[in-house]
Structure formats: structure tokens, C-alpha cells
Protein: Receptor-like serine/threonine-protein kinase
Organism: Phoenix dactylifera
Amino acid sequence: MSHPLLFTFLFIFLSSLNIPHTFAANSISMNHSLSGNRTIISQGGNFVLGFFQPGNKSNHNHYIGIWFKKVSQLTPVWVANREKPISDPTSSELRISDDGNLVLLNQFKKQVWSTNLTSIASNSTTAVILDSGNLVLRDDSDPSKVFWQSCDHPTDTLLPGCKFGMNKVTGERQQLTSWKSSDDPAPGIFSYGIDPRGSSQYFMVWNGTRQYWSSGYWNGHLFAAIPEMKSGSINYYEYISDATENYFTYSPVDDKIIARHVMDISGQAKDLAWMEGAQKWMLYYCQPKQQCDVYNLCGPFGSCSQGSFPFCSCVKGFSKASPSNCDLEDYSQGCARNTPLQCPHSSSDGDKDKFFMMPGMKLPINNHSVAVASSKDCELAWLKNCSCTGYSYSNGCTVWYGDLLNLQQQPDGSAGETLYLRLAASELPNSKSRKRRFVGVGVGVVVGVFLFAIAFILISGHQRRRIIATTKAMENNLVLFKYGDLQRITKNFSEKLGGGGFGSVFKGLLPDSTVIAAKKLEGLHQGEKQFRTEVSTIGKIQHVNLVRLRGFCSEGTKRLLAYDYMPNGSLDTKLFRSNSMVLDWKARYQIALGTARGLAYLHEKCRECIIHCDIKPENILLDASFVPKLADFGLAKLVGRDFSRVLTTMRGTRGYLAPEWIYGLPITSKADVYSYGMMLLEIISGRRNAEQSEEGKKAFFPVLAVNKVTEGDVLSLLDRKLNGDADLEELDRVCKVACWCIQDNEFHRPSMGQVVQILECAIEVNMPPVPRSLHVLAENSESLVFHSHLN
């Protein structure tokens, strides 16, 4: 085959594969337009400009947008025609028009988007995608002459280096507006921007009308309502105010970080960074912190509950108005009635509308107050008013008309108020059916007592055989215990081994003399099916440095986990109790290494990264050979899959918490690294990091440790009970690792895999810098309670 024919064949073949073509240039000019699957890439290869399809590819909607080149997950950061999608990108075109504007023409050559500038006709006008992600329209003969840039017209995302504020001369201001849904970039109902009156505050607004969050004023260092900006962030923040403009901008602390600030469809502003290893975006910060603080997130008659996932559900008598939209995280249409109200057409007592009691609610807004004598009078008065959809009586009668917006179920039902919701009578049981049910229950009780007596005689002889069979099954499988069995095994939970934020642990003895530790869980609210699924997942996770889960119980609110019993107890008893045996240096080093291996397995070897969230000596158990076993490693996962819920629900221990957690920022596995570093210092010294010194003064040991490591005097940090008996090279290595683990910025901390390599002497460790936050903690050490649980 001749060369010309070969090239022709290859061209046709490659075209048939529909592989996106990329221009060598990073710009669009008069003679160089963009169509079909062609793209242009910024000079450094950071960003791409071209046609894309968001979400579900079956909708046939295409948009011109900018997305990350180095992120495997398509993530648009700017969309030109977000309100006017095109259906055929092949015959559509992004080009420079005769008047110098950048325009998008659809398949009918009709203009659907333009930079919309006053005529700037120039043969050298060019659109260039920069490595910052900014698309600029400029004079190619004089690149400093910029006519238009995408940074001035953001959609839902603010990229590092872009200004986010207001031009005081023209009054023009930038605003971030959420997507309508996860596959529709059209403007949604949540927006975010600077105070149009010219102050330094930033507001979030629902539907262009109701403000639901404010940053507070800039005080020269941070925004008043966001104290966590001061530290513990992946970004540097800056606010500028001069004669011509007010604006906010940010940049990552490490130029290798791929970051974005987005107004999410959840109504929250979020800072995210791309985690290459996990192949996903990791949330580092969001406002408002609580999802249910977003106004009317769930739409009419939708209720938001912070303790559940998804957060939105329909109140009784209502169903999702648009299930398909909800699947795309768009809950704005709310819920629709299952049964129309009878009023004003009710004909008898049987089919009149009724009010359904909803306790523990945060009441909706737009209420009306009415003067009545009692709750009963309030109900009777508004049953007659067909336009009343709900009422509440608390020191007065309050009523609502039309749609109920911003309904919230409080996390603790007793913390809210009671709302009475108007429903059709058929949605609620009437008194006659309740009487029939009461009679039926009474008869059932009598019969049940009789049957129970017979069953008790038959079952009691069988119980011992069943428990023994369960014990044998435990050799290889996760066992589902009955609550009554665990009651008997633990002698009605009489021998308590310890307790913590998640519940208490009790010693139990199986019929074959196997000793177990049964943990009664508290505060877990997920459904039965989800709980069993999560426990089954944890049960498959086995490692020599993780306490093995043997079985579990899940009967209503009774949730227990059965673990192997560890005869040498927890690490804290060996380190801090004066009457306990002294662990020699060899044992301490092996405990540090074993714990690191267990954490590295959870973070890096499991199908999903499991963040422990409560690393401390109390959660390191020791078997008969003093091999460390990490306990409670599955409890963070059991709290819930959604990361923000892990943040808001989890209870850690102050003194081991990473700075980003203390400041209310979402966490990653590097929070465990910080806690591990703090614990490592306690293993070295044999004392709590904050305790009375021999001189009676309260000292913060990590500050001393970092200074001594810098000076090269690590031996002075060793537990005095060891009388200097330690391998100095190992001691130096452990001290340096601990100081690296407690760095302020999580990107400066090593991963647990790297910690294992250092402790195994596979890689060297350099001298660590001094973490700034330690001085803050030291200055405030007298007001800190380092070992009390946070709610």
C-alpha cells in the first residue's frame, strides 16, 4: 500500500473512532474555530476548552465549557451557553465573529452565545485558554490588551487567582450560581456574591430573594463569620479593597494542588481539592456547615433532617413531586399531596380534613399569629379555614397558608416545636379503626402469653446448643447474634471493660470458653439494611493490627458489635498508670510500627478509604503477645458514607484532633495521621501530652518535643522509667516522624504508608519544621481539656 493511501486509511479509521481532536494551539482566531469533538488546551496542559456533555449522556445536550485536563473525572469550571444547550456540536461552531466577539453558533448558524462586546473588530483578536483556567479575548499583537475574560463572568466555580467581588466604577460584580441539577448547568436557585451595597460581606441567596448565609465583614485577616480561614486550610485567602474595586481571591498553599471553589447544587459554597490517589474530589471546607441551614433546600412540603441521608424527605401524606430530579440532587420541586384535601367539600365527620402532629420541628417561616384561648380552639378555628395548611400552638396560635417551606426535622425531637399538618382524613386512621385495633391487640396479647409459655419450655433446652453452633460458625464467618444471647453471654452486661464516645464495652464468655468483648453502640441512626451492609463490609476487613470483628446484633435500636477479647487491655493503661508494668523500648517501637501498619491498611488497602477519626492510646489494644490491635476502626464508617455527616456526627478527643477538624473543616485520612503523631509522642514520653510537670506547672509536651528534636536532644524526651535504655537511631526516627505527622498543613504530613516505610527503615526522614499551631495550643493549654469527648 502506498504512503498516501495509508495516510488516507488511517485518517478515516481514526475519525470513525470518534477520538477528540486537539489543536496544537491554545487559542481560537479568525481562521481557527472550534467544532465537534475538537478541543484546545492551555499551554501548560492544565485546562481544556471544548464541547462537552454533563451527567447523563442520553439527554443529547452539549455545551461549550472549560474543564480540568489533569483530572480524570470530567469537571467543568465554566460554561458559556449554560441556558441554551445545543444538540449537534459537529455542525456548531465557536469562532471569532467579524466584529471581534467570541460567539457560539448552533447547527442552524444561529448565535446562541456571545461575549457581547461593543465592536472591537481586529484581524488579530484571539481567544486564549490560560493555564489558570481563564479564557481571555485579547489582541494577539498586544497580549496585554484584554477585551473580555471568563474570570469576570464565572458560572458556579471560582478558580484560584480569579477576582470575586465588585467594580466600584461600573457597579459590575461577579456572582456564583449553582447548577440546576447534577446534569444541567442552567442557573439553579442558589447564588453567592458580594454585598451589592459595597460592604465586604458575601451573601448566599435562595431564588434571588432570601439571604440565608453571610460571611460577616472582613476584619483585615479573615471574615468575621469564618474564623477557620485563619489556618487549617489548603488555600491562602486575600481580600482587597481600593478606590476602584472590592474583591476576594485565593491560591492553594501548594501549587501542585488542583483546587476549586464552587457554589454547589446543595446550596453550600465548597472548597474542593483533587485527590489523585483516590480519584475523587475531596471536600475541605463548606458554608453553611450544616446542610439543613440552606434555606428551602427540600422544596414545598419537603423536610430536611441533618441526621439522615439523603437529607431531604417528604412529610406524611406527600410524595416527591419529581423523583427523577431528586435523583439528580435537585429537590426544589419539593413534594406533592398523595390525597387532595376534602375542605370545603367534606360531607360528614368521616371525611373531614385532619391535622397530623409533627413533633421536633423547626417551624417554617411566613406564619400568621392568631389570638385564641387554647390549642383546641386553634385547631377548631383553622379546620374551618380551607386555606390553612398547618398550625402550631406554643404561647399562642400560629398558622400557615399555602406551601410550607423550609421544614426541618431537628436532630433531637425534643429540641423543636410541634407542627400540625393538614391532611385528608384518609391519610390518618380514624377512631373506629383504632378501637378495632385495640380489641385485636388485647386478644393477641392473651394468645401471645399462652404461646410464649409453651415456646419458653421448648426453646430453653435449645438455646445452649444454638449458641455453641454460633460459636463454631464464628471461626470463618461474621455472626448475627440475637440480643438475648449477648445478654446471657455477658451476664446481662455486668462486667464493663471500658467505654467511649460510641458506647460501652462488656466482657463475655461463649459456651466454648471463648472470651469476647461486646460493644453496645449509641447514637447510630441509619436503617437496619444499611447497618447490616456496613457491618458486613467491616467484617471482611482483617489485618494483624486490627481487632477482629466476630459478629454483631441489630434489633431495632439495639446495636452491638462482638470483638476478640484483648487480654493486655489498652495502651493507655500501660503508658500512664503508675501500678502497671513498664513497656520497654522494643515493645513501644513495635507498637508504633504495628499501629501505623493497621492505619495504612485502612487508608490505602481497603476498597474505600476508612478514616478512624479517634486515634489515641485508649483505642490501641494489646493481645497476649503485646501485638497492637487498632480498635473501633469501623465506627467512623458506620456513622455514614456521606463525608460531611462523618464530620458533623463524629466525636473525637481533644488533644488528638487535627487543626482542620477543630476549625470545623471537613477531614481526610491526614486527620488520622495528626492524631497518630500526637499519640506517638505519648508512647515516647510515657505521659500525656498535657499534664502537670514535676514542678507543678502544666506543660504541653509537643512544643518541648519539637524544640528538642530540632536541637538533636531526643534522649531527653524518652520516658524516664526506661532509664535511657533505647536504640538512639530508632528514637530519633520516631521523634522526627511524630513531628512530621503533627504539621499544621495536612499536605505537609506523610501518609501512613510513608510512616510505615520510615519506621521500617526503607526511607530516610528529614528534619521537620516547627508547626505554628503548637504555640497557639501551648498558650491556651490551661483552658483546654485534652481528653474529654466532643459532642
